[in-house]
Amino acid sequence: MVNNRESHKKEQYYKQAKKEGFRARSAYKLFDIQKRFNIFKRAFYILDIGCAPGSWLQVVKKYTEENLVKYNDQYYHRDHYKIMGIDIEKTSPIENVNIIKADITKPEIQTKINSFFQGKLDLVLSDASIKKTGNKFTDHLRQITLCYKILELARNNLKFKGNLVIKAFQGSDFNKFYKEVNPIFRILKSYKPMSSKKKSNEIFLIGLQKRN
Ligand SMILES: C[S@@+](CC[C@H](N)C(=O)[O-])C[C@H]1O[C@@H](n2cnc3c(N)ncnc32)[C@H](O)[C@@H]1O
Question: Catalytic: 189?
């Protein structure tokens, strides 16, 4: 019964993604996160880590384009956007999006991020996921190791009051990671989007308003 419901849900999001032109059903996780936390508010410079096949990038582009019009006022705004997507795998091009095929854990990537965003990143997104082996414990630990690397990158590149979304897997070291992220942001929440499979142990950490 649960399995039926789960596969129905999976199928439902898959069909919706196809109909609405998104490259993957993961797009709806990001829509869920936005609905709940408004992470795209006044976001113009955005980095998406683990971006292939590119559905989050499609969502990012939609919001940044809207923001150019929506926030064209005397407060923080820009007249252009900058989006960078990084993945080990190939991501098909998206107009006006800088896509890089690279491993985020390699130090060389820092220079590329620096020269593109110049320390003005509003939002870092990471849906990056290690290749699962099926062993929940080791997969959890490997994913958390990846999360620490991404956190370091976000800490070094996000601007003051910037936001972070990062995917982790629940397990023994999750709380430790949460505690590491906590002091960096004014608000920190863990969240499992509606569109995320129930049986999956993925969980997103949402860090809002980076401290100085
Ligand atoms: C769940 S998929 C992302 C889906 C994407 N958010 C979308 O909506 O299309 C996870 C991605 O993380 C990428 N990934 C895993 N480890 C990575 C790393 N060290 N550097 C860059 N990308 C990585 C994988 O190649 C994979 O494409």
Answer: no
